[in-house]
Amino acid sequence: MSETTLRRLARADFALLRGWLARPHVARWWNHDPSAQAVEADFGAAADGADPTQLFVVLDGGRPVGLLQRYAFADNPDYAAELARLVALPRDALGIDYLLGEPDALGRGLGTSMLRAAAAQTWRDCPSASAVVVAVNAANRASWRALERAGFERVAEGPLEPDNPIDSRAHYVYRIERPG
Question: What pairing do the DSSP bridges indicate for beta strands 94-100 and 131-137?
Answer without folding.
Answer: parallel
